[in-house]
């Protein structure tokens, strides 16, 4: 039974466990030379410890972060769906069905965790502690705005890249390598003066290829 004196403890223990497991997975991957990266393990571990100790400041940061990451993930999924050609998206799911299922389950669990975290840190007891410490108890509007801003920037940048002269040039260079049997999508581009480098995805109805072009 968790003490009502610390309404942050459940979230703290959960984040501590997640951070610990994530670090163990990272160590295993490093030992076995498996590619793995995560920005949440240390954050979860440290935040979990401070929440268990009842840190109000940490609780506010985690509460804000739960909304921010939720909006950011939703925005990224919506953004990718809007930016990436539907035929390419469908083909990627078809060719990597198990990876797609795994990613879907991970996102579902992650988003559920963010919702649960926000609710746990928005209980009457938690908000009472925030108010007593002089902090606002309103919904973290800045987190919503920050997530929405990232979505707008992502869509805007992708639209500019795809329709720019550099984007068209990248597609032309990729087409010179692979021919007319593919459609081309510029996934990233970097420019320096009159030179540039781009990663282009070439796709047909049955295969996907990645091409790096320079000019």
In brief:
By secondary structure, this protein is an alpha+beta fold. The chain is 67% helix and 12% strand.
Mean pLDDT across the residues is 86
Number of strands: 3
The fraction of residues in strands falls at 5-15%
State the order of secondary-structure elements, H for helix, E for strand.
HHHHHHHHEEE
Cα separation of the termini? 64 Å
Q: Which stretches of 5+ consecutive residues score pLDDT under 50?
A: none
Structural class: alpha+beta
Helix content: 55-70%
Notes on the structure:
The chain is of the alpha+beta class. The chain is 67% helix and 12% strand. Strands 1-2-3 form a three-stranded antiparallel beta sheet. Strand 2 (195-203) and strand 3 form a beta hairpin. Helix 1 (9-31) runs antiparallel to helix 2 (41-52) and helix 3 runs antiparallel to helix 5 (97-120). The radius of gyration is 22 Å and the shape is elongated. It starts with 8 loop residues before the first helix and ends with a strand. The mean pLDDT is 86.
Topology:
Layout: H1 9-31, H2 41-52, H3 56-83, H4 86-95, H5 97-120, H6 124-132, H7 141-163, H8 165-178, E1 183-192, E2 195-203, E3 208-214
Antiparallel strand pairs: 1-2, 2-3
Helix pairs in contact: 1-2, 3-5, 3-7, 7-8
Q: Keywords, please?
A:
8 helices; elongated; alpha+beta; three-stranded antiparallel sheet; 67% helix; 215 residues
